[in-house]
Write a structure and sequence with these properties.
The chain is an alpha/beta fold. It has ten helices and nine strands.
Length: 299
C-alpha cells in the first residue's frame, strides 16, 4: 500500500522521462549494492573553471567599449540581450564617449561590472544564437556542428560553449579565446578494485574520465546544481543534479558538494549511501581545480 502511494505521488510530481530515469536508477542502485568488493570515491568541484565571464576574460576594455559604441550587426544582437538600463547607457553617445575615454581605468568599476554580468548571462542562454544577426561570424568546425543541432535538442553545455565562442568572435581581440577544455574536469582512474565514482560540480561541468588498463568503474553518481555530462565510461550513470542536461529543472532528488566542510556535504553523503549502501571511501574536492586530473586509486 505504501509503495503504491509513493508511486502515485511520484507520477504526479515527475515527468514520464524522469519516472523512467528513477526506475533505471533504482535498478542501478540494486546492482551496486550486490557488488562484493568495491570502493566509493568522490570528486567535487565548485566550478570547473572561471564559469561564464569575469574580469580576466576581458583583454581590452577600450576596444570593447569602442565595439559597443559603434556596434556591428552581430554586436547589436549582443546588446539587445542586455538589461534595459544598460542598453539606455549604451545608446547615450555622449555618455559612451566619456566611458570610452575612461575604459580600462578604475574609475568605472560599476559600469564594467554591469557589462560583465550581462555577458555572463548571455553565455548561459539557450536561445542566444540567431542565424540572421550572426551570419557574418566565423567560428570553429565544432561550433558549426552545434549550430546545426535544433536548439531544443542542444545540451546546456553545448549552448554554453557555443555562446562563449560566439562572443569571442563578435568582439575579436576584446575577449579571451575559449579554452578547449572549457567547463570540463579530467579524472584518471587507476587499476585496482571496482569503483563507484561520485562526481559533483556546482556549475555546469563535463567530466572527462580516463581509465588506466585494468581500471573498473562499475557505476557513476553524477551530481550537482547545474547540468552535468560525462565522457569515457560505459556503465550505469545515476543522475542527481538539479538541472538536467538540457538545462531544464529536475523534480527528482539532487545533491552536491565540493568539500566535506560544506553544509551540503551531509546531504550528499546520505544520498550516496542510499544509492550505494556505503559511505565514501575517499573524497577529494577543490573549489576551482587546475587542469591536472584528479586521480582515483582504488586500492
Amino acid at each position: 500500500m505504501i509503495q503504491m502511494l509513493i508511486a502515485v505521488s511520484l507520477s504526479a510530481y515527475c515527468t514520464a522521462d524522469e519516472l523512467q530515469d528513477l526506475s533505471r536508477d533504482d535498478a542501478a542502485s540494486k546492482m551496486i549494492q550486490k557488488l562484493k568488493d568495491f570502493r566509493v570515491h568522490g570528486v567535487g568541484v565548485s566550478q570547473p573553471d572561471a564559469s561564464g565571464f569575469n574580469h580576466t576574460d576581458i583583454l581590452d576594455w577600450r576596444l570593447l567599449s569602442q565595439a559597443l559604441l559603434a556596434p556591428s550587426t552581430a554586436a547589436e544582437h549582443v546588446i539587445a540581450q542586455f538589461p534595459a538600463p544598460l542598453r539606455a547607457k549604451l545608446a547615450d553617445a555622449e555618455l559612451m564617449r566619456f566611458l570610452h575615454s575612461k575604459a580600462g581605468s578604475d574609475d568605472l568599476p560599476g559600469f564594467q561590472l554591469e557589462i560583465l554580468v550581462a555577458l555572463r548571462k548571455i553565455v548561459g542562454q539557450s536561445d542566444f544564437y540567431n542565424e540572421k544577426s550572426l551570419r557574418d561570424v566565423e567560428f570553429s568546425e565544432e561550433m558549426k556542428s552545434i549550430v546545426k543541432i535544433d536548439p531544443s535538442n542542444r545540451t546546456r553545455l553545448q549552448s554554453i560553449a557555443l555562446n562563449r565562442q560566439l562572443l569571442t568572435c563578435v568582439f575579436p581581440k576584446c575577449l579571451k579565446e575559449m579554452k578547449k577544455d572549457y567547463h570540463s574536469v579530467p579524472v584518471s582512474v587507476r587499476a585496482g578494485r571496482d569503483v563507484v565514482l561520485v562526481l559533483s560540480s556546482n556549475k555546469a561541468c563535463r567530466w572527462q574520465i580516463n581509465l588506466d588498463p585494468g581500471a573498473s568503474v562499475k557505476a557513476v553518481v553524477l551530481c550537482g546544481f547545474d547540468a552535468q555530462e560525462i565522457d569515457g565510461v560505459d556503465c550505469p550513470v545515476i543522475y542527481r543534479a538539479l538541472r538536467l542536461k538540457d538545462g531544464s529543472v529536475s523534480k527528482a532528488e539532487y545533491f552536491y558538494a565540493h568539500a566535506e566542510t560544506e553544509p551540503t556535504f551531509e546531504k550528499m553523503k546520505a544520498g550516496v549511501k542510499k544509492i550505494t549502501g556505503r559511505e565514501f571511501d575517499t573524497f577529494e574536492g577543490r573549489s576551482q581545480p587546475d587542469k591536472k586530473p584528479f586521480v582515483v586509486n582504488p586500492q
